[in-house]
Write a structure and sequence with these properties.
Layout (H helix, E strand, L loop, with lengths): L2 E4 L5 H8 L2 E2 L18 H17 L7 H15 L7 E13 L4 E13 L2 E8 L10 H8 L9 E6 L3 E8 L5 E4 L3 E2 L7 H18 L3
Parallel strand pairs: 1-4, 2-8, 5-6
Antiparallel strand pairs: 3-4, 4-5, 6-7, 7-8, 7-9
Helix pairs in contact: 2-3
């Protein structure tokens, strides 16, 4: 009998047993989020400052629900990153399956926001309630990311609850591995949305460059 596990209940142990997934401790495996990136414009910084201020105001009456997080935080980020314009497109509420061949397990789940360029899966974004720790969504995000049909290329993800942001990188070949960035948070001094946007813009530019003739 085929065992089915909902992605939102999958654990790292499930993925380890089914895929042999391991966390990479090599800093070079996921150095993309640490690279030098072009500075943001003054206009971009001002808009991100307003996004942080809006989020802070809404946090006075917690918890902020998932749809509020999308409107207040995710939507401006995706807009500034250029993901609402061609050749990218946005699919929401996308259902995906992860086939685990060895143990006959299928993990099914929903991706809240999926950024696509043609058939290239760029980002898996899991938005949760503002009081939901992003670390709890790591197995769910990895389950979605590892369903990427273009398994020879890495898949990048972003988990956010509107306050915290965590980038992920996962591969299935030659071995199943993953790693995460440091945790970015809006409660830290300054505005860490700057670095989040820089990373999104950088990855978007790299994806576009891959398919240039």
């Amino acid at each position: 009998m085929v065992q089915t596990i909902a992605a939102n209940t999958a654990t790292l142990r499930d993925l380890k047993q089914a895929l042999g997934l391991q966390q990479s401790l090599d800093p070079a495996f996921f150095d993309e989020w640490q690279q030098d990136m072009p500075p943001l414009s003054e206009a971009e910084q001002q808009l991100l400052d307003r996004v942080k201020a809006n989020f802070t105001a809404l946090m006075e009456d917690p918890p902020m629900l998932e749809n509020s997080v999308k409107m207040v935080v995710l939507s401006p980020l995706l807009d500034l990153a250029g993901f609402y314009r061609k050749p990218f497109r946005i699919e929401t509420e996308t259902s995906i399956d992860l086939e685990l061949e060895d143990d006959g397990i299928v993990i099914r789940g929903r991706i809240d926001v999926l950024v696509l360029k043609e058939q290239f899966w760029l980002l898996v974004i899991e938005s949760k309630r503002s009081d939901f720790a992003v670390t709890r969504a790591i197995p769910q995000a990895l389950a979605c990311m590892l369903s990427n049909p273009k398994l020879t290329d890495p898949t990048f993800g972003l988990i956010t609850n509107g306050n915290e942001f965590l980038f992920l990188k996962a591969t299935r070949q030659p071995t199943a591995q993953y790693a995460n960035s440091r945790l970015f948070s809006l409660i830290n001094p300054g505005n860490e949305l700057y670095r989040v946007l820089q990373t999104l813009k950088q990855w978007g530019a790299e994806i576009l460059a891959i398919e240039e003739p």
